[in-house]
Target: Non-homologous end joining protein Ku
Amino acid sequence: MSPRAQWKGYLKFGEVNCAVALYTAVSTSERISFHTLNRETGNRVKREFVDSDTGKPVPREEQIKGYELNNGDYIALEPEEITAVVPESDKVLHVKVFLACSDIDDVYFDRPYYLAPSTSASEEAFALIREGIRKMKVAAIARAVLFRRLRTLMIRAHGKGLIATTLNFDYEVRSAKEAFEDVPDINIKGEMLDLAKHIIGTKEGTFDAGKFDDRYEAALTELVKAKIEGKAIPARKPAKIAKVTDLMDALRQSAAMIGKSKASPKRAAKKSASTSETTPTSRAASSPRPQRKAS
Model:
C-alpha cells in the first residue's frame, strides 16, 4: 500500500518546475501508546475542559484561543481572526538559493520529509533537479506554506528522490552562547589528550540506525506481554556508575581494557591453531595401529 501524501504541490527554481508530493519520513505510530483509566473501574477516562472559575464544563463550540497578557488577563482571539492571518498557500516550493549542506548548523533541523514526483509527466524535471543538486553537492533552500505556516526547507538528493527537512526559525533556536557561558575554558593537552584520541580512534565506525534499539519501547512491550500472560514482572537492578576521582587514571584504564579486548581474539586464534596442529599427532600416537594379518 502506497503511503499517503501529506502535501502536494510544485517544486520550482527558475522556470523549471515539477509536481511533487511530500511524505512523512519519521513516524511514531509504531510506538506503544496508553490510555488513562480509572483505577477503580478500569474504564477509560475522558478529558473535559472546564471553566477555571466556575468549574462548569465548556462545550467545544464555546472554546476559543487566548493570549495571556498578565496572570489571568487574556486577549480573546476568534477562529476567523486567526484564519485571516494564516499565509495564503500557492502550493509551490520556491527555491531561493543553493548552498553546501555543511553551511547549515544542524541545530536548525526540524522534521524530515520524503519528496517525490507526484505525476509521470513531472518525473524528468524531478530527475533533472535531483541530479543537479547531487552533482553540485549542494542543498536547495525553499519556502512554502505547509500545514498553515510559512516554512523554510532544506532539500537534498537522497537515492532516487529528495529529502526536504523543515528548518527552525532563528527565534526558535536558543543561543548556544547562553547555554555554554558557565563552561570553563580548559586547555587539554599532552598524554591526556593522546589517550582520549586513542580511545576514540579504536571506536570509529559508520552510522547504522538498525543497530540502535529503543530499549524503553522494548521494555514496555515486555511489560505489556507479561501483564497479558499473568507473569511476574522482574525487578530492575539499579545501574552501578563508578565515580571518577582521577581522570587520567580512568583514561589509562579505558585504554588498557581496549588493549586486552583486542589481544583476546589473537590469543584465542593462536590457541586454536596450536590445538589443530597438535591434535592429529596426538590422536595418531594414542590410537593403536592396525595389525597386518599373517599370510
User: Anything to note?
Assistant: The longest helix spans residues 247-286. The mean pLDDT is 83. The chain is about 30% helix and 25% strand. The first strand starts at residue 7 and ends at 13.
